[in-house]
Amino acid sequence: MLVVETSNELPDAQEVFRMVRNMGERGLLAAFPAVVVGRPKAWDFDHQLPVPERLAWAEAQRAAITRALAPYNPDAVVVFDVDLGHTDPQLIVPYGGEIRVDAVERRISVRY
C-alpha cells in the first residue's frame, strides 16, 4: 500500500498531478493495490483561504491524483481525505505498521 500526502507548502493540483504521474512513469504505482491519500492541507497561517476555496483546492487535488493514477494503476483502491500528515486532526501512521483497506466494507484498519 502506498500512503501519500501533500505538504504544508500547499502545492497546486498540477504539481500534485506531476508528482504522482512521475511515480507512475517509473513503474512505482503499479506495485500498490491501494493508495491512501492524506487530506490535503488547504490553508496555512500565511496563506488563508475561505472555506469554499479550501473545498475547491482539495477537490482539484483529488481529481489530479485520480487522473495521474488512471493510466498506471486503474484498479487500485484509492482512499482520499484520511487525517494524516500535514493536516489537523492528525493520525499517526508509523512505518512498519500494517494498514488494511477493505473497499467493500469501506473501512481502513491499522495495526501498529
UniProtKB/TrEMBL annotation:
One annotated GO molecular function: carboxypeptidase activity
Superkingdom classification of source: Bacteria
Domain LD-carboxypeptidase C-terminal, residue spans: 2-101
Pfam family, one: Peptidase_S66C
Gene3D superfamilies per record: LD-carboxypeptidase A C-terminal domain-like
UniProt keywords, alphabetically: Carboxypeptidase, Hydrolase, Protease
Protein name in UniProt: LD-carboxypeptidase
Organism: Micromonospora halophytica
